[in-house]
Design a protein that fits this description.
Blueprint: H1 6-24, H2 37-53, E1 58-63, E2 66-76, E3 79-87, H3 96-107, E4 113-118, H4 122-130, E5 134-144, E6 157-158, H5 164-174, H6 182-189, E7 191-197, E8 200-206, E9 212-217, H7 220-232, E10 239-245, H8 250-258, E11 262-272, E12 280-281
Parallel strand pairs: 3-4
Antiparallel strand pairs: 1-2, 2-3, 4-11, 5-10, 5-11, 6-7, 7-8, 8-9, 9-12
The chain binds coenzyme A.
GO molecular function: acyltransferase activity, transferring groups other than amino-acyl groups
Organism: Nocardioides ganghwensis
Protein name: GNAT family N-acetyltransferase
Length: about 290
Amino acid sequence: MREEDLEAFGEITATSYFEVDARTYQRAWPDPVRRPPGRNAHWMRRTGRALATDPGGCWVAEVDGEVVGGAVSRVRELMWILASFAVRPDQQGRGIGTQLMAAAMHHGRGCLRGMFAASADPGAVRRYRLAGFDLHPQMLLTGVVDRSAIPVVERVREGTAADVELMNSVDRRTRGAAHLDDHDLLLDQFRLVVTDHTTGSGYAYVDDDGVPVLVAATNRRTASGLMWEALASSTPGAQVEVRHITAANAWALDVGLAARLAIYTNGYLCVRQMKPPAPYVHHGSLL
Ligand SMILES: CC(C)(COP(=O)(O)OP(=O)(O)OC[C@H]1O[C@@H](n2cnc3c(N)ncnc32)[C@H](O)[C@@H]1OP(=O)(O)O)[C@@H](O)C(=O)NCCC(=O)NCCS
């Protein structure tokens, strides 16, 4: 993949993911929307950075000189992480995805562990299992936060770039590999809240809607406090959607249920040579 392929591949991921969502979303959910332009800019920045840090993990496939698919992966401290994987819908089912996946996995050949979040696309899930990954169903919590259920949260403060070392150490304890530079991308996009105390430490990145998009902590109590801090910042009366919760993280379900959110399932956390991290809620592409 080259810098000049970014835009074309970005369009392909937006189209392919939207097409999967349209095929697999549940009736009780709002209709899926294609990735909005605001989020496209973040996708471009993240992927552009991956191209700089992990050129060997980023690949596109061309048919007649035109980009028709790609795969973006990173290696962080002996963990291989797949961030984006898509083939244009009219070119799917011809073996292109298999070749892209093989090229991206070659980048992680020195890594024992691997981790990524997968859509519910049966073709993708087939690829991942055949590539040796364990599939852990992901749950999501959705609804309007019951403000009267929000507890007083102690020992949570706003975080800054000065917390990166602390976060990397919590990453190693929970997911077995630090995010390193990826924290810069996350810090640019999200609000950071941190707990750093003798009784537990952890952090959460929170989006503008009050959704915790990444939570890691040394114990469940700390993780729950961070998740409550995020939910408390949601706009009263507005829908929130907390995604990427595995069965290993029942604490997050308990917070969601106390906030009167509903549980659904969607997609999988795919891992290799490791258990699903806990207490942990993974980010969709940086994990
Ligand atoms: C996942 C994806 C990248 C694979 O690319 P592709 O070029 O279609 O992949 P291939 O043709 O190499 O292989 C697809 C495999 O899925 C199988 N498949 C396709 N549709 C399927 C279905 N509905 N049910 C079961 N298997 C299916 C194919 O038979 C093939 O398996 P095989 O090689 O063992 O026969 C592509 O389908 C895609 O872009 N999907 C939508 C986006 C997405 O979900 N990406 C993954 C995000 S985590």
